[in-house]
Design goal:
Blueprint (H helix, E strand, L loop, with lengths): L3 E5 L4 H12 L3 E6 L14 E3 L5 H11 L3 E4 L6 H6 L1 H22 L3 E7 L22 H20 L2 E7 L1 E3 L17 H10 L5 E4 L11 E2 L1 E3 H16 L5 E7 L5 E2 H12 L5 E4 L8 E2 L4 H7 L8 H17 L4
Parallel strand pairs: 1-2, 1-4, 2-3, 4-5, 5-6, 6-11, 7-10, 8-13, 9-14
Antiparallel strand pairs: 9-12
Helix pairs in contact: 1-7, 2-4, 4-5, 6-8, 6-10, 8-10
The structure holds uridine-5'-diphosphate-4-deoxy-4-fluoro-alpha-D-galactose (UFG).
Length: about 325
């Protein structure tokens, strides 16, 4: 077995795919997760160590036991709407506890970190597609928590010799093509799983939040990126960090560069599932930009990232295969 990587949040949707990608590339992923939103059943490629981001004693114990050479930090709260209603909870977990986590790495002499950031750091984009040099001005507390940690990483580089990469995800979609893991949030707020629930008859309809945007069909346009492609980028980022001789804090967009509207996503889900997906119209959801599409050229050029599942239909087909399986299985 190769190097050990500590994966904080490895029991979550993206984290479990990162663990699978790490294992496929010869690493041993050690999952550190408090299971507040993740699932023990998604931890399949290495040990699970239960613990909170802000528990310095527990972290020191886990680091001492496994001696990871690098860390992937995905643990965090992710619901944009909830962050507006309860910002204290978001700043406490995604910032305050994260500081304790970063300091535990520093104290243990671990200097290589891949951090889960988000396109939410850009707020309402001034132009499309959005490159990494686009100004960052988040439109909600969730986005601010991500930007604050990016800022800290920039300061930790020269001061403590930290080498980090922040990966700014656009809209994660799909599921493991082998059907081993997939998306399982409670409550679910994301478009594709909700549309698939409507296809399964587990909800009456999918609500379209706004059809009066300045977009071709009036609904919001997003850049959907397959979760396994996202996971691959973490492995590449770790390899890239190993080649860095100087402290660094870099950010890379991860998206596929194609925009699909909410209505197009629902229509595609209808074709993939071969079921009717009832829709209902509602007003705009607060904080939603009309169009959010990435320029991810830098991740391709610098990290050598390539996409295996850029096509929306494939992404939804993988999500659908997982969704049906999940609906039939007991939850943990
Ligand atoms: N949408 C609906 N109906 C729904 C759910 C979503 O119309 O029931 C729409 C939204 O308004 C949006 C699009 O579908 O236009 C996608 O919404 P999601 O909730 O699936 O995803 P978001 O774009 O809001 O958020 C995602 C990540 C966030 C991240 C953000 C960055 O989940 O963590 O992208 O842009 F911050």
């Amino acid at each position: 077995m190769g190097e050990t990587i500590l994966v904080a949040g490895g029991a979550g949707y993206i984290g479990s795919h990162v663990c699978k990608a790490l294992a496929r590339n010869g690493y041993l992923p050690v999952c550190y997760d408090d299971l507040s939103t993740g699932h023990a059943s998604a931890v399949k490629w290495g040990p699970l160590e239960k613990g909170r981001l802000g528990d310095a004693v527990r972290l020191a114990e886990v680091i001492d036991r496994h001696r990871p050479s690098a860390v992937v930090l995905l643990a965090g709260f992710i619901a944009v709407g909830e962050s507006v209603v309860d910002p204290a909870r978001y700043y406490l977990n995604n910032v305050a506890e994260t500081i304790t986590f970063l300091n535990a790495l520093k104290d243990a002499g671990i200097s290589h970190l891949v951090f889960s950031s988000s396109a939410a750091v850009y707020g309402a984009p001034r132009q499309t597609p959005v490159g990494e040099d686009h100004p960052t001005w988040p439109a909600n507390p969730y986005g601010w928590t991500k930007l604050m940690v990016e800022r800290m990483l920039a300061d930790y580089a020269p001061a403590y010799g930290m080498r980090s990469v922040a990966l700014r995800y656009f809209n994660a979609a799909g599921a493991d093509p082998d059907g081993e893991i997939g998306e399982d949030h409670d409550p679910e707020t994301h478009l594709i799983p909700l549309a698939l629930d409507a296809a399964l008859g587990r909800r009456e309809a999918i609500t379209i939040f706004g059809d009066d945007y300045d977009t071709p069909d009036g609904s919001c346009v997003r850049d959907y990126i397959h979760v396994s492609d996202l996971a691959d980028a973490h492995v590449l980022a770790l390899g890239w960090l190993r080649g860095q001789t100087q402290p660094t804090a870099e950010a890379f967009n991860l998206g596929n560069g194609n925009g699909y509207s909410v209505k197009e996503v629902i229509a595609t889900a209808g074709r993939v599932t071969k079921r009717e997906i009832p829709t209902r119209m509602a007003g705009r959801r607060s904080g939603d930009p009309a169009i959010l599409v990435s320029d991810a050229g830098r991740a391709k050029d610098v990290l050598g990232w390539t996409l295996r599942h850029a096509d929306l239909e494939t992404q939804i087909a993988h999500a659908w295969a997982w969704h049906g399986k999940k609906a039939a299985a007991p939850t943990d």
